[in-house]
Prior knowledge:
Radius of gyration: 19 Å
Helix content: 25-40%
Strand content: 15-25%
Number of strands: 4
Amino acid sequence: xxxxxxxxxxxxLLVAGVLELGRGYVFAIATSDAARDGARYVAGKTSxxxxxxxxxxxxxxxxxxxxxxxxxxxxxxxxxxxPPFSAPADYTAPAAGQAVVAVYCGASVNCAGSVxxxxxxxxxxxxxxxxxxxxxxGGAITISGSSHATTSW
Length: 153
């Protein structure tokens, strides 16, 4: 009984840590999937459009993130440079339980869904999520997912 009483707190911390890492992994996969879906959607070119536009892409990303958060700030469009982005210069760091979406459409694309003749255009979508780890690992941690799509036809 004494040995069990000594090892029980350690075992509880280990199990809680594994559960938190699992939660973090689920959120990381969700942000990565949302970024990938968003980049694919906004870069979905046809012969008459350069994509459905950033507003429609944000609706898709918000729907993808519905299971983990209902607070999504979208879109943030960093101006003047390609990724990598840094907070707070390019986007506002998300608070715990919130997500921020940053979109960069390259020099040749405006992501507005307007009709242009553009080939090999790059679209970057980053989703930053403020993961709250129940203070086991020190508090709020930003988990990011990103996707890069090059479009051509």
